[in-house]
Amino acid sequence: MGSKHFVQLLPLDQSQQYISFLLIVSGLLLRWLTSLHPYSGQGKPPMFGDYEAQRHWMEITRHLPVSTWYQNTTDNDLLYWGLDYPPLTAYHSLLCGYVAEYFVPDGVKLFTSHGHESYQHKYFMRLCVLVSDVLIYIPALLCFFSRTENSSSQRVSQTFVLSVALIYPGLILIDHGHFQFNCISLGLFIWACHHLHLNNPVCTAILFSLSVNYKQMELYHALPFFFYYLGHVYHTTDIRLLLTLGSSVLITFILVWLPFLSVSQLGHVMYRLFPIYRGLFEDKVANFWCSANVVYKFTIYMTNDQMALMCLCTTLLAILPSCVSVFRKPNVVKFQQSLIVVSLGFFLFSFHVHEKSILLVSTPVILYLPRDPFPCVWFLFISTFSMFDLYIKDNLVLPSLTLMALYYTIIHDFARKSRLVYYIFLGSLLGCVLLMCIALGVAPPPRYQHLFSLFIATYSFGHFALFFVYFYCKQLDFKFKYIKLL
């Protein structure tokens, strides 16, 4: 008897548990298979890449005093992958450093371990990310999508939602291929959303504060949380809620930042967390400034401070209506829509955005998927494609193409709502395929080495701009016939 028939014979709850278990195993297997491939900076001295950055943070947090973690000293050269994430990341690096010292001591020896590459160490580092996924991110997804009130409003099966959430290629390729720990900050963010839906404001405040204290880019999500609860306080005049939330956030931040609360220490840390000196953007990224820079050279005619102020004003103007909307109607649907709009607004218009920051938009899109599946799965495909230049640099072309092909087999039926939508969707994906083929098979002109990277970024930006308008229309309840097609 086939597995499909076996599932049909099970009671509904057992059948769902069986399928969920298979999906989790499949997701973990795909993560581990991806981790067998190269990582960021492998074999590329002298700086290597993000893998080396994470290893180096384990080294310095394990061997240097806390007071020097964010300071440039003779033992801590900040030009060589100095810590530039909040203290919770440093504490996590310290924990991993202790474990590494027991299993792979050569990988965390001060100075002598720079650029350390061995099979045992790679196995250890990959396992650290996988364990983080298993302990934080995957349980958060399962709990969020298991809520009764969420499943009752689903327009698609929970099996489909979990399959998309667990097999989303973007996060797998960045965390388990390129090498990062986004699963921790994003997992804490999902846990915060879960408790917001359960009306547990204290847990929400603590968990979201922890996510911000792991990666400062979680500030992309801060304003929807802020205006959601501010709206509740305003409409209910519940001052106790305001005091509870404020004290929860304050206490969490104080506990995390306790070793760095002196004026000098705070200055060092904040300088590392918000590096204005790095410029408008580094690599080609699918946001407005990178695409517009082709026409007007912002990086030539404006200083970093001027560009930072310009980006701040533009971003705030772009997201303000979304924040006002969730303040006026602080309900779950508006909150989820605002998370997408605000985080995408930050990605498109804020200062010094990395291509990997699109994961901060993809995660709210995953959470919103049961309510509006087709635009969400389309967005998730484009978000994965937008980082294709990074996959080429990291020698992750094979796993990226495999995961995108697998993802397409899962989502393609959702495009068959109407002939118009199907042709638009198919044309969009064919454009991605064409650009990937060009990037892989055609040498760029010697004078324009980054031409194809710019094509990928600009093509993705065009999609993200349209998605920004679409989700804004959904949140603000703008209704017109083309929106209904989706």
Automatic annotation (TrEMBL):
<feature type="transmembrane region" description="Helical">
    <location>
        <begin position="156"/>
        <end position="173"/>
    </location>
</feature>
<comment type="similarity">
    <text>Belongs to the ALG6/ALG8 glucosyltransferase family.</text>
</comment>
<dbReference type="InterPro" id="IPR004856">
    <property type="entry name" value="Glyco_trans_ALG6/ALG8"/>
</dbReference>
<feature type="transmembrane region" description="Helical">
    <location>
        <begin position="333"/>
        <end position="353"/>
    </location>
</feature>
<keyword id="KW-0808">Transferase</keyword>
<feature type="transmembrane region" description="Helical">
    <location>
        <begin position="123"/>
        <end position="144"/>
    </location>
</feature>
<dbReference type="GO" id="GO:0005789">
    <property type="term" value="C:endoplasmic reticulum membrane"/>
</dbReference>
<feature type="transmembrane region" description="Helical">
    <location>
        <begin position="219"/>
        <end position="235"/>
    </location>
</feature>
<feature type="transmembrane region" description="Helical">
    <location>
        <begin position="241"/>
        <end position="263"/>
    </location>
</feature>
<dbReference type="Pfam" id="PF03155">
    <property type="entry name" value="Alg6_Alg8"/>
</dbReference>
<feature type="transmembrane region" description="Helical">
    <location>
        <begin position="422"/>
        <end position="444"/>
    </location>
</feature>
<keyword id="KW-0328">Glycosyltransferase</keyword>
<feature type="transmembrane region" description="Helical">
    <location>
        <begin position="21"/>
        <end position="39"/>
    </location>
</feature>
<keyword id="KW-0472">Membrane</keyword>
<comment type="pathway">
    <text>Protein modification; protein glycosylation.</text>
</comment>
<feature type="transmembrane region" description="Helical">
    <location>
        <begin position="307"/>
        <end position="327"/>
    </location>
</feature>
<protein>
    <recommendedName>
        <fullName>Alpha-1,3-glucosyltransferase</fullName>
        <ecNumber>2.4.1.-</ecNumber>
    </recommendedName>
</protein>
<feature type="transmembrane region" description="Helical">
    <location>
        <begin position="374"/>
        <end position="392"/>
    </location>
</feature>
<keyword id="KW-0256">Endoplasmic reticulum</keyword>
<dbReference type="GO" id="GO:0042281">
    <property type="term" value="F:dolichyl pyrophosphate Man9GlcNAc2 alpha-1,3-glucosyltransferase activity"/>
</dbReference>
<keyword id="KW-1133">Transmembrane helix</keyword>
<keyword id="KW-0812">Transmembrane</keyword>
<feature type="transmembrane region" description="Helical">
    <location>
        <begin position="450"/>
        <end position="473"/>
    </location>
</feature>
